[in-house]
Fold Translation initiation factor IF-3.
Amino acid sequence: MPPMRALDIARDRNLDLVEVSPHAMPPVCKLMDYGRYKYEQAKKENEARKNQKTVTLKEIRMRPRTDDHDVEVKTRKIQEFLADGDKVKVSVQFRGPDMRHPDIGRKLLDGIAEELKGIATIERSPAMEGRLMSMIVSRAPGWEPQKKTVSVGKNKSAQVAEEATDTADEPQTANATVAQTQEPVAQTQEPAAQTQEPQQQ
């Protein structure tokens, strides 16, 4: 179709003539509302940016002779970072005489990697960076962290039992109030009996 004919059709339909394949022979054009097309593209890009999670590189540091309990605590912290979708840089910091025993740091990092098997993927194997030996781990594909569950049934039954005990106590407090209000009535009748004695004499 001649270009002028295509332009006339676009004007008649109140559309735009957009060239989509300029290198084709002959070039390929398309009739469209170009303004609406740009709006839809921008909207899709904004939604994609909103749904895209920013991956942060966290770092956990320890010493070559860190005790087992602290290593367990730091390993659990690494799991928390991985559950949030972050990458983790695990580093062993060497000082003074420790620099002569890099094998201790390597053994420590290998032990952590073994603990994280199935949870983390080793993106970078342990390597020396100055006084640090570091490795980088990320969340393993297909691993889903366990969600914490709250037992609602027990809380509800406890609440119902508490309400039942409260309602059971209500009649007792009501009876006690009635008994207290009746006592003054009995006391007010005594003076009336005393005033009648002089009239009989």
Remarks:
- The longest strand covers residues 120-129.
